[in-house]
């Protein structure tokens, strides 16, 4: 072949493009440690998916997966690729969906506890609005138990909520994220040294409240709830004033608060899950649910997507 221009030289120097199907199979194997499950998800035979992985490794010149007693694990090169393949596939799918699917219109009603709003929602809502500018979004903040009740009554289309041990792996929704609860106290006061321990918590049905009081009871520490609030910011305000301690996520915390732990004389708190429950199957609700699931998959502590 004759090489006549600089562009011809550049084209010859470019490596072959990565096939999204190869990357998708790789990600599914890496997340589930199983070629069989990955093959079921992509609708191919196990041998076809195994061949895809050989092609991908040959193309990149590195081993990506290692078979062990408990399935496949990642090599260092495989871990590097997985971290970058997830957002790349997400963008790839979003581009195709934007041009292939009809414009998403209509109103979608999303419920969420207020403590998740600043932590996770800005990115989710920004991406949803950019992809579906004709859709109208309504966000309702309330405690998880109230959100699930409103969802059941048809007042919400989908809701993010806190799931306790009794809902983990079952419940009405899809697990999105798992992480520990933490005691939160004032950085300027030692309220956690007082007896009985004064608590600022949500309503009695809140799973965080139950986790806190059960942990204190198991440790034999006396306590009393002196302040109640249906919103996390309300409990934080009381803690900032040096009047009580509360429970919450480790970060980001408002200035003036700090995480308390066993070194402060407090018992370890259990892990909990954040889940997504969806009632409506309108195009807008389905699209928003997809954005939420995808965003949490890329978070530290995010759970593999078992919904699609």
Automatic annotation (TrEMBL):
Domain HTH lysR-type: 18-75
Pfam families documented for this protein: HTH_1 (PF00126), LysR_substrate (PF03466)
Keyword DNA-binding applies: yes
Lineage: superkingdom: Bacteria
SUPFAM superfamilies: Periplasmic binding protein-like II, Winged helix' DNA-binding domain
Keywords from the UniProt entry: DNA-binding, Transcription, Transcription regulation
GO molecular function annotation: DNA binding; DNA-binding transcription factor activity
Family: Belongs to the LysR transcriptional regulatory family.
Entries under PANTHER family matching the protein: HTH-TYPE TRANSCRIPTIONAL REGULATOR LRHA-RELATED, TRANSCRIPTIONAL REGULATOR
Protein name: LysR substrate binding domain protein
Organism the protein comes from: Pseudoroseomonas cervicalis ATCC 49957
